[in-house]
Amino acid sequence: MPGDGKRSARAFAIVLGVHLAVIGLWQLLVDALHVPKFILPTPLAAIETLLHPNYAWPSNVAVTAAEILGGFALGALVGVALAVIFTWSRLVSLLLLPLFVTLNMIPKVALGPLIIVWFSYGLVPNILIAFSICFFPILLTTARGLSEVEPDLLDLVRSLRGSRWTLFRKIQLPGALPYVFSGMKVGAILAVAGAIVGEFIASERGLGYLMIQVQSSLDTPAMVMAVVLLTLLGVALYGVVLGLERMFVVRDIRLN
């Protein structure tokens, strides 16, 4: 609807304005207080690092983005699939869900070195670390959404001889979509943290690897720029999930 588009544009303009105001205030305060660059650089000093080829920004951003996207996609796929299995089979849920809860309690920083030993260096271990952090919220929220369907509605479909697949496709999945996307939004945030945990532990490329390299020389502008780029990757992934949620959930509500 036109009104929805105008409200979205207005909200985006407000959010962008607040962010730009904070950046401008940051620049003014650092200049006015003469804060040393190695403690806190100005935004302009951080942006200037993008012009230096020594940091290899494009390749490092691409590696971290691949780790985040790979871990998130794997987490969403496995989390939703397991939630469906647990919903369809109470016995499997009773046997395996407590095990996954226990495994999720393992600190991922402690698990990281083992994953590096098992899978060596590269994209795969960092994708797995990101997956291990982000998949559990998706599993829990999806399982809750699939189980919180009105019993009377399920009984009605069963009385009409609807198959399990019909129940899932027509009733359970549409009703669970808000829960699925809620878990995916949390998972998108955690996938970013997981990828960086992997790069901090052991990596040869990526934004986390770059931050470790420049830390020894107190190259704070490059570290700040790496944090900014990492944040932008997380915002982009979150925005994609949010867009998909509005596409599928809102459309489903309007159709009903």
Q: Which sequence of SSEs, written as H and E, runs from N to C?
A: HHHHHHHHHH
Looking at CATH, the homologous superfamily of the largest domain is MetI-like
Q: How many DSSP E strands?
A: 0
Mean pLDDT: 84
Q: Could you explain how this protein is built, in words?
A:
The chain is an all-alpha fold and 256 residues long. The protein has 2 domains: 1-34; 41-255, MetI-like fold (Orthogonal Bundle). The protein is 84% helix and 0% strand. The chain has 10 helices and no strands. Helix 3 runs parallel beside helix 10 (220-255) and helix 8 (164-201) runs antiparallel to helix 10 (220-255). The longest helix is centred in the last third of the chain and has 38 residues, at 164-201. The radius of gyration is 22 Å and the shape is flat.
Summed up:
The protein is mainly α and 256 residues long. It has helices spanning 2-33, 43-48, 57-88, 90-104, 108-119, 123-147, 151-159, 164-201, 207-215, 220-255. It has 10 helices and no strands.
Spell out the key features of this protein.
256 residues, mainly alpha, MetI-like fold, 84% helix
Itemize the secondary structure elements and their pairings.
Elements: H1 2-33, H2 43-48, H3 57-88, H4 90-104, H5 108-119, H6 123-147, H7 151-159, H8 164-201, H9 207-215, H10 220-255
Helix pairs in contact: 3-4, 3-6, 3-8, 3-9, 3-10, 5-6, 5-8, 6-8, 8-9, 8-10, 9-10
